[in-house]
Amino acid sequence: MDELSQKLFHLSHCPSMTWNRIFRLLKADPSLKHIYSYSARHFSEVLSTPMKKSLQIYQEIHSFDIHQSLNIYNRYQIKFFPIYDSNYPRLLKQIPTPPWGLYAAGDSRLLSDEKKIAFVGSRKGNDYGKKVISEFIPPLVEEKFIIVSGLASGIDSFSHQAALQADGKTIAVLGGGFCHLYPKENAPLAKLIAEKGLLISEYPPNRKPKKWHFPERNRIISGMTIGTVVIQAGKRSGSLITVQHALEQGKEVFAVPGAIFDPLSEGTHDLIADGAHLVRNAEDIIKAF
């Protein structure tokens, strides 16, 4: 790992280092050569933060043992890909706030493959959603699409499972670190994905998921894929955040209709009314590309 990669790796472990703060540091010092010599006051000036927060940042930076963490991650075959790495997804680099780095466990070659499509929907997805996924994903796998989702309950889990059952590749984008999987009951599925596909996160393995991590995670799901398929999304489904990111990123959005009286169809039907592609089978998705 080169020096800049190590610095980005280090900063990602500092909870107070937001995307914008890292951006400001890189703007002031593109090689991050001097961050270890900065005083708390200098951090305050560069980051435009109060002294109390700058002292916290200073302490976080100087209390982290980078070499110990690298040794642990190497032991567990966890890799870190900074934004300028050749394996980092090209499409993800193009979004407004791409992660400065990605942690990966599994087949990291999948990162640079651009034939990825996202499947998102309700955590309350039912047998209808499962049937749609079981019909849609095998033909997409046959066409060498990589299925990307967020390892949540419901539609996410169904999508990962269907891809694996079809001997395809799937990527799970996490809302926390690898050591704090959410939901916990998906730990066996996560293990299987790490063995046969790829787990990724912008958060270091020891970072517990926070409520705001999941909307941030959704920009990665849409950002690294060429399109997003929405199945069973209610009026206020969190999956609609992924759709909003996809639209802002100029990506294709596909919505699967459901029963008109089903609350889980309200969000998807609104998307169709607003111009999303109405899809009835995998072929409707394949022909869009």
Structure at a glance:
The protein is 43% helix and 14% strand. The protein contains 13 helices and nine strands.
Give a structural overview:
- This is DNA protecting protein DprA.
- Residues 81-288 form the Smf/DprA SLOG domain.
- It comes from Bacillus smithii 7_3_47FAA.
- One of its GO terms (biological process) is DNA-mediated transformation.
- The structure is a single chain.
- The protein is α/β, with parallel strands linked by helices and 289 residues long.
- It has two domains: 3-75; 105-286, Rossmann fold.
- It is 43% helix and 14% strand.
- It contains 13 helices and nine strands.
- It has helices spanning 3-12, 19-28, 40-47, 51-62, 66-75, 90-93, 127-142, 155-165, 187-196, 213-223, 239-248, 266-273, 282-286, and strands at residues 78-82, 101-106, 116-121, 146-149, 170-173, 198-201, 227-231, 252-256, 277-278.
- The chain has a nine-stranded mixed β-sheet with strand order 1-2-6-5-4-3-7-8-9, sandwiched between helices.
- Helix 9 links the parallel strand 5 (170-173) and strand 6.
- It starts with a helix and ends with a helix.
Taking pLDDT < 50 over at least 5 consecutive residues as the criterion, the unreliable ranges are none
- What is the total number of structural domains? 2
Radius of gyration: 20 Å
Query: How many E-type strands?
Result: 9
Instruction: Report the structural category.
Output: alpha/beta
From the 3D structure, determine the CATH topology of the largest domain.
Rossmann fold
Q: What is the correct CATH architecture of the largest domain?
A: 3-Layer(aba) Sandwich
Distance between the termini: 36 Å
Arithmetic mean of pLDDT: 97
Q: In percent terms, what proportion of residues is strand? A: 5-15%
Query: Which CATH class of the largest domain applies here?
Result: Alpha Beta
Q: Characterize the largest beta sheet: strand count, sense, and whether it forms a barrel.
A: 9 strands, mixed
Number of helices: 13
> How do the strands line up in the largest sheet?
1-2-6-5-4-3-7-8-9
Q: What would you call the shape?
A: elongated
Percentage of residues assigned to helices: 40-55%
Order of helices and strands: HHHHHEHEEHEHEHEHEHEHEH
